[in-house]
Write a structure and sequence with these properties.
Radius of gyration: 22 Å
Strand content: under 5%
Order of helices and strands: HHHHHHHHHHHHHHHHHH
Largest sheet: none
Protein name: Transcription factor domain-containing protein
Number of helices: 18
Oligomer: single chain
Distance between the termini: 73 Å
Organism: Stachybotrys elegans
Shape: globular
Helix content: 55-70%
């Protein structure tokens, strides 16, 4: 890996973007301090990444594009985890993301499908999704799955599964693979895409990462473990969901068969007591971030499981019929909106990042639209007042974010107009009674 790092080829240093060595070092430290390797891609050698801020200051050292892309993605995450609790400069965020985009062509020209290439693709998948660049995110995800399969990560435990030393040695690879499986199931669901893995599921041989029984995890370690296991449970449900859709006949009641699977996803949220965990770690913002994303994942999955199970014509693809209205769909929409507002309110320093995650990865706008449509079509419903408050709360949250990030201004205006429209409809109904 060191040879890749120091390969002599044109590189893009931070100095080109107006950055400084100490900024990169600070963001790296924040990333590795607060983001758990149980959820984020484990790096084989952190020491190389930690050296990059200093190496990029040296004119005679040119950095491999793959390592540079990993570095940019990491400090992009780290800039929102600043221990000083100061709001990150939006210009720095834009510069880092542009640096990612400029580095991708050079990386792809020399990528050979190594583990380092896999980690770069995984990180860029997340980075592009949070930047609302769905096309690039899907492209990076497909590349990551291709690299993982070529590295035979789906067959890590095909042989010698009882060797404890082998379990410990491959744990980082297992984490990478399970994170990728989780992401692939979610991306297939949300983006309505074919599977990115070419190998059939029944050919996969990869265990969960090894959990030591010698000592219980500390409180800080417990939350990432809970999040990883809960997401894995949701992933297994999604696997059953896609297998069910493939096996269902045209004349069968699709929603009647899929509905219980949606309830299983909701049961994961209840059984793992995610709300209690959120309150238990109310003083730890980074633990709340993990739990908030898990909660969004649960209820976003329910909405899109219902959506993908509904046969649509081409002309129906963008209208309100894409999600069949039911108590479950309305309940899931409320939770997505509530959790999105909770994350924005509880992460004031990273409000734009929270909103980007909610919109880019979990499509919170779909839940809001479904909730608003239900208010408009059922203004007599008992919970219409509560739902109006939720839509207004989200509109206010996005308006606050737009004061910092001007890119969200059109969305803030659109949501304010939406709230006014449905509130007027509900008010007209009550006045006519």
């Amino acid at each position: 890996m060191m040879s890749r790092l120091l390969r002599k080829r044109p590189g893009c240093g931070l100095k080109v973007c107006g950055f400084h060595c100490w900024i990169g070092s600070s963001y790296l430290a924040d990333y590795f301090t607060h983001l758990s390797p149980k959820i984020n891609p484990p790096l084989k050698d952190r020491r190389l990444i930690n050296l990059l801020p200093d190496l990029l200051e040296l004119d005679h050292v040119q950095v491999d594009a793959c390592m540079l892309l990993i570095y940019y993605c990491i400090i992009l995450q780290g800039c929102f985890l600043d221990a000083s609790n100061e709001r990150p400069d939006p210009q720095i965020h834009r510069h880092i993301y542009l640096s990612c985009l400029r580095t991708i062509p050079a990386w792809q020209n020399e990528a050979n499908g190594s583990m380092t290439d896999l980690i770069a693709a995984i990180l860029m998948t997340q980075t592009a999704a949070e930047a609302l660049d769905f096309g690039l995110s899907w492209h990076m995800h497909k590349q990551a799955c291709e690299y993982a399969q070529n590295l035979d990560l789906h067959n890590l435990d095909g042989t010698d599964t009882l060797n404890p030393a082998n379990k410990m040695m491959d744990d980082a690879d297992r984490v990478n693979m399970w994170n990728l499986i989780q992401l692939d199931m979610f991306y297939r669901l949300v983006n309505n895409k074919p599977p990115a893995f070419l190998s059939a599921l029944n050919n996969w041989r990869v265990n969960f990462p090894w959990l030591s029984l010698d000592s219980p995890p500390t409180q800080d370690e417990a939350v990432p473990v809970v999040v990883f296991l809960a997401r894995s449970r949701i992933t297994l449900i999604l696997i059953s969901y896609f297998q069910t859709l493939d096996a269902i006949g045209k004349d069968e009641d699709i929603l009647g068969i899929v509905g219980p699977l949606c309830l299983q996803v909701e049961q994961v949220y209840v059984e793992w007591k995610i709300d209690e965990w959120l309150h238990m770690h109310s003083q730890d913002e980074y633990q709340k971030w993990y739990l908030g994303e898990l909660a969004l994942s649960c209820y976003a999955c329910i909405l899109f499981m219902l959506c993908r199970a509904t046969p649509l014509s081409v002309n129906q693809a963008d209208n309100d019929n894409m999600i069949p209205r039911s108590d479950l769909s309305i309940r899931a929409s409320r939770k997505v909106v509530e959790i999105t507002c909770h994350m924005i309110d509880n992460f004031p320093m990273v409000g734009p990042e929270s909103l980007s995650v909610a919109l880019g990865t979990y499509r919170a706008h779909v839940a809001c639209a479904h909730l608003a449509s239900n208010i408009e079509k059922n203004p007599h419903a008992d919970a219409v007042g509560r739902d109006l408050v939720l839509v207004q709360r989200l509109a206010n949250c996005i308006e606050g974010v737009a004061l910092v990030e001007k890119e969200f201004t059109p969305l803030a205006r659109a949501l304010s107009c939406l709230y006014y429209k449905v509130a007027t409809k509900a008010d007209s109904y009550f006045q006519s009674m």
